[in-house]
Specification:
The chain is an alpha/beta fold. It has a single domain, classed as Phosphoenolpyruvate-binding domains (TIM Barrel). The chain has twelve helices and eight strands.
Length: 273
C-alpha cells in the first residue's frame, strides 16, 4: 500500500481477502499512536460525548464539536484514513444539509470519509454526499440512533453477544445492496452476528466492517481505542478483556506520584531543583 493508505486501497483489501483494521480515536496523542501502529482506518466517533466527555445523551454532540475533535485526530494521523461521524441532526434535516455537513467535515476537519448512521433510511443523502465527491461509510443494523428511535435500548444491544435476529437477514441484505447502489464506499454493520454478517458481506462488493457484535466474518473490525486498551475509570476495578489496562496503570502511577509529593521526594520526570 505504500506509506499512505487511500480509500481505494481499503476498498481493494476486500478483493484480496485482507482484513481492514479500524479504531475509534478522539485525541491527537492516541491518533498518533494508532497511526504508528499501522491501523488502516481511524474513525472519529460521535460517541465522544458519552465515552470521553461523560454526557448521558449519545445524541448530544454538535457539528462544531465534531469538527474540533476531527481536527485533533487529523493532526495526529499521517498514514491511515480518517473517517468522521455525522452528529445527530444534519442527516435528519435533509439531503442539502447532509451535503453541507459532509463538505465541512472534509474541508474544515480533514476527514477522508464521512460516516452516516441509520443510512438505509437516508438513501438520497448517501447518494448526494457520494455525488459531491466525499466517500460515505454507511452504518446500518442496530445503531445508537435507530435503537433510540425504535425504543430498543442500545446499551442492551451493544454487547459481544448481541446480534441482529436471523429473521432480519433478507431485510439487511437488501439494505446493504441499496446502500452500495446509492454510492456508499463502505458499510459499518453494527451487531451483525455470525449468521447475518456473512450473508451481508457476500451480497456486496464494497467492504463491510463492524464494531460491537461483529467478528471475523466481516471484512474488517473497528474498535474504540479506549476499550481496546482499558483506558477508562471503570477499568481500575473491573478490567475488561482488552489488550491492556491503561486505567489501572494510570491509577497506580498517580498514587505513586501523590506519595512522592506528600513525602517530599522529587517527582519522576520532574526537573531537579
Amino acid at each position: 500500500m505504500g506509506t499512505h493508505v487511500t480509500v481505494a486501497d481499503v476498498v481493494a483489501m476486500k478483493r484480496r481477502g485482507q482484513k481492514i483494521v479500524g479504531v475509534v480515536a478522539w485525541d491527537y496523542q492516541l491518533a498518533q499512536i494508532a497511526d504508528r501502529a499501522g491501523v488502516d482506518l481511524v474513525s472519529v466517533g460521535d460517541s465522544v460525548g458519552t465515552n470521553l466527555w461523560g454526557r448521558s445523551n449519545p445524541l448530544d454532540v454538535s457539528m462544531d464539536e465534531m469538527v474540533l475533535v476531527c481536527q485533533a485526530v487529523r493532526r495526529g494521523v499521517k498514514r491511515a484514513i480518517v473517517m468522521c461521524d455525522f452528529p445527530f441532526g444534519p442527516l435528519q434535516e435533509g439531503r442539502a444539509s447532509a451535503v453541507r455537513a459532509a463538505v465541512r467535515l472534509a474541508r474544515d476537519a480533514g476527514a477522508d470519509m464521512v460516516k452516516l448512521d441509520a443510512a438505509a433510511d437516508f438513501l438520497d443523502a448517501v447518494a448526494a454526499v457520494s455525488k459531491a465527491g466525499i466517500p460515505v461509510v454507511a452504518q446500518f443494523g442496530i445503531t445508537p440512533q435507530t435503537a433510540l428511535r425504535h425504543g430498543i435500548g442500545y446499551p442492551q444491544m451493544s454487547g459481544p453477544g448481541s446480534h441482529v435476529p436471523l429473521e432480519m437477514k433478507e431485510e439487511l441484505v437488501a439494505q446493504a445492496r441499496q446502500l452500495e447502489a446509492a454510492g456508499a464506499t463502505m458499510l459499518d454493520f453494527t451487531n451483525s452476528g455470525p449468521a447475518v454478517g456473512p450473508a451481508v458481506v457476500q451480497s456486496v462488493s464494497i467492504p463491510v466492517i463492524g464494531g460491537m457484535g461483529g467478528g471475523p466474518w466481516l471484512d474488517g473490525r473497528i474498535r474504540m481505542i479506549h476499550a481496546a486498551i482499558g483506558y477508562s475509570a471503570a477499568s481500575v476495578d473491573n478490567p475488561s478483556e482488552g489488550y491492556a489496562n491503561v486505567g489501572a496503570i494510570a491509577f497506580d502511577a498517580l498514587r505513586a506520584y501523590s506519595a512522592d509529593v506528600r513525602e517530599g521526594r522529587q517527582i519522576k520526570g520532574g526537573m531537579a531543583v
